[in-house]
């Protein structure tokens, strides 16, 4: 597989406070990888460093072989990196349909946008029935679906997902993860997923990294981490 994302010696800071300390990780094309760990472990900060949002980052950060460490956020998005932040970030006053169109605003293949909207409505049937509702009137789970669908409207090469299960019902979490599994299998979607729910994440991803206090403490395939005693005790509840 082709390496899509390469991180070497990455340090991330907010002002003078360093929250990620010289980590290495990579994501191959067509692979889904999770960042696991408790609140404050540095997971979200890694995604923000990749998409160049609100943090200072040093080290090596390459996307498809291209150095992006100092690249501004719009340029990073134009390379095909779509970031779905924690809290979803939908436009509350816009309708579902308008939010989807915003996701495709920088695409050049304008003639394919309506086709992709129809595809999103097939993937997320709840969005189809709420196309004319404003995003602010949707449930938390529906807003998460909309945020993911809007990111997919970019036709991204890589999806950054921050806590997709946070604050939503287990049933809706299952729906979202089943859809991500479908996209991985059918379209070879590449994704880096931050998730506190290790069990649900390890049922989806190929590999994962475990972070504590901004450092990687364990890594491996999903199967390997399920058998790791420390991971089982700390994150899987047994």
Automatic annotation (TrEMBL):
Record's keyword annotation contains Cell membrane: yes
Pfam families xrefs: ABC_tran
Alphabetical UniProt keywords: Amino-acid transport, ATP-binding, Cell membrane, Membrane, Nucleotide-binding, Transport
GO molecular function: ATP binding; ATP hydrolysis activity; branched-chain amino acid transmembrane transporter activity
GO biological process: L-amino acid transport
Alphabetized SUPFAM superfamilies for the sequence: P-loop containing nucleoside triphosphate hydrolases (SSF52540)
Domain ABC transporter: 5-238
Keyword hit for Transport: yes
Family assignment from sequence similarity: Belongs to the ABC transporter superfamily.
Protein's recorded name: ABC transporter ATP-binding protein
Origin species: Hydrogenophaga crassostreae
């Amino acid at each position: 597989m082709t390496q899509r994302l390469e991180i070497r010696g990455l340090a991330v800071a907010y002002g003078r406070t360093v929250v990620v300390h010289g980590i290495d990780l990579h994501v191959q094309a067509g692979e889904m990888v999770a960042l696991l760990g408790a609140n404050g472990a540095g997971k979200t900060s890694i995604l923000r460093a990749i998409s160049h949002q609100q943090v200072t980052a040093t080290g090596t950060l390459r996307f498809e072989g291209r150095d992006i460490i100092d690249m501004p956020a719009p340029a990073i998005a134009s390379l095909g990196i779509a970031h779905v932040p924690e809290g979803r970030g939908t436009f509350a006053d816009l309708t579902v349909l308008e939010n989807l169109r915003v996701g495709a605003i920088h695409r050049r293949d304008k003639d394919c946008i309506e086709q992709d909207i129809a595809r999103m409505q097939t993937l997320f049937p709840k969005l189809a029935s709420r196309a004319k509702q404003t995003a602010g009137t949707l449930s938390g789970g529906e807003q998460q679906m909309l945020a993911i669908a809007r990111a997919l409207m970019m036709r991204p090469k890589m999806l950054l997902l921050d806590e997709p299960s946070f604050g939503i019902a287990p049933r809706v979490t299952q729906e979202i993860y089943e859809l991500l599994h479908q996209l991985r299998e059918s379209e070879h979607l590449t994704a880096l997923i931050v998730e506190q729910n290790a069990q649900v994440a390890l049922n989806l991803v190929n590999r994962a990294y475990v972070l504590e206090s901004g450092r990687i403490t364990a890594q491996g395939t999903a199967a390997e981490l399920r058998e790791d005693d420390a991971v089982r005790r700390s994150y899987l509840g047994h």
